[in-house]
Amino acid sequence: MSSHPLEPSRAEMLAMTDAAAQALASFVDGLPEARSADADGVEPLVSHLLGPPGERPGEFGPLLERLQEAAGKAYEAAGPGYLAYIPGGGLFTAALAEFVARVHNRYTGMAGAAPGLVAMEQGVMRWLCGEFDLPDTAIGVATTGGSIATLSALVAARERILGDDVAEGTLYVGAHTHACVAKAARIAGFRRAAVRVVPATPDRRLDAEQAARMIAEDRAAGSRPAVLVGTAGTTDTGTIDDLPALAELARREDLWFHVDGAYGGFFRLTERGRRRLTGIERADSIVLDPHKGMFLPFGTGVLLVRDHASLRDAFAADADYLQDFDESVDLPDYNDLTPELTRESRGPRLWLPLHLHGVAAFRDALDEKLDLAAEAHAALAADPHIEVGVQPDLTVLTFRLRDRPDDDQRRWLERANATGRVLLSSTRIDGAYTLRMCILSHRTHADRVREAVDILRDAVNGPPGRPS
Ligand SMILES: *Cc1c(COP(=O)(O)O)cnc(C)c1O
């Protein structure tokens, strides 16, 4: 036994780690056969779990089982059939890196406290800045997700373009821009009315000409246009805005050009994606989500900014109690570049998978998703009962039953999902209920995508799954 109740002995550590590793290996092995969503018996489990912890120690084995049971009542977001919303997957090797980093428990708010781990994170960020052709002045920081990265970008933009005088500042977003941008603008101190929604072109891209007209009108009326937001892959349809036109407009009008690449940004690693994302290299800030496009477990976003000074100007803070930190290493202090002081070390979870599997494995996986989306689009388009949306820019496809009301579309989705083999979701396109499929998990391959297409075709008029 160990000497302190909060410190397991070496033997206990090894036994617990081994038990967890065994359980996780079985979980990953079982993913191909796992149901795509499981809510059976969730009510008694939830009421049990809402209870308080006991005073006396519990037993690891049963507690681990409870933890797995709790995780099991969920959408199977780690499995190959997860085609809803924006999938990620959850790389085992990223979780493993995280476990190691967590036990070390290093502080990365100040580089001097853990230069190795800060360098590990910065190595990945420099590589990303290179992939996006940003200049030497650029810097990246890892965040907890795309929404928080967006908030930091808008605060930096506000400081740079407006200074303290936010009142008349305006932002320009598209009709299909992610809701986190308007939310971030609110938190960053912009008025609700400051978020100007530019209409979309018929192919659902932010209309740069309309944006130019709105900017001119706003200026004439005394507003201060500050930020233009382009999207590199919308959540609804995966559509990429005309980034070169938006970059040009932002340059001409002296606006901060922000690109939301939370879903689509990592396709930059592929040849096709690189071409389709042309113009992103002119952004002042880019948001990426490794927990989507790099298949990491949820909780990792990235913000890249063109000029590192813009982050420093927005977030630098000095405090007397930090005076002893070693400033000799040439690495950034995240405390000066982000809203966080104490922060987890987010480098290892990115670094280990990239170095262990190699970058080509990520490029190839993303390339495969582009192929799968094109194949599924063609297969669905060949069915006379199904009306598909335009050829996808990336890996989101949209489709509906031809000439049928919304209720029929919803029931079609329910029948497909009730098979337990796939989980699809829906959105509204021009007001009409529309199904969508997003292919992004590293575990989704041709067999499951073909199965999804078969399920959808078979479910047009009745079962596969039970409901309707
Ligand atoms: C997911 C997503 C976001 C929000 O990122 P989170 O990591 O969920 O906070 C923003 N924009 C787009 C296009 C997204 O797909």
Structure notes:
There is one protein chain. This protein has 468 residues and is of the alpha/beta class. Helix content is 43%, strand content 13%. It has helices at 10-30, 42-49, 60-72, 92-104, 115-131, 146-162, 179-187, 208-220, 243-253, 271-276, 290-293, 308-315, 347-357, 359-381, 406-417, 446-458, and strands at 139-143, 169-174, 195-198, 224-231, 256-261, 285-288, 301-305, 386-388, 396-401, 425-429, 432-438. The strands form two sheets. The protein has a seven-stranded mixed beta sheet with strand order 1-7-6-5-4-2-3, with helices on both faces. It has a four-stranded antiparallel beta sheet with strand order 8-9-11-10. Helix 5 crosses helix 13 (347-357) and helix 6 (146-162) packs across helix 7 (179-187). It starts with 9 loop residues before the first helix and ends in a 10-residue tail after the last helix. The mean pLDDT is 96.
